[in-house]
Write a structure and sequence with these properties.
96 residues; alpha+beta; rbstp2171; three-stranded antiparallel sheet; 3 strands; 47% helix; 24% strand; Phage tail assembly protein
Amino acid sequence: MNVEHTVSFLLPQGYRDEQGQLHRSGRMRRASAADEVRAMLDPRSREQEGYGIIVLLASVIVSLGDLAGVDTQVIEALSEEDLTYLREQYRILNEA
């Protein structure tokens, strides 16, 4: 992971894991063309409009609190406020 192309973030509400621990701080990397293609080709993206951003965020978020990894289930569990925040952070990072 190239640190120059990552950004730290702090979720407004955060993700609460099965043990009740809240995870709010994380890091996101720039997306590659391959990340965007995988998100578009994911069958869930074709079945459900707007799901591509879930797949994309799961691939570019390199850390969230103490979680071992971030997958689509974690992103799906976030509040709308957190998801909107991450979309904006993604846009800023990838338009830079």
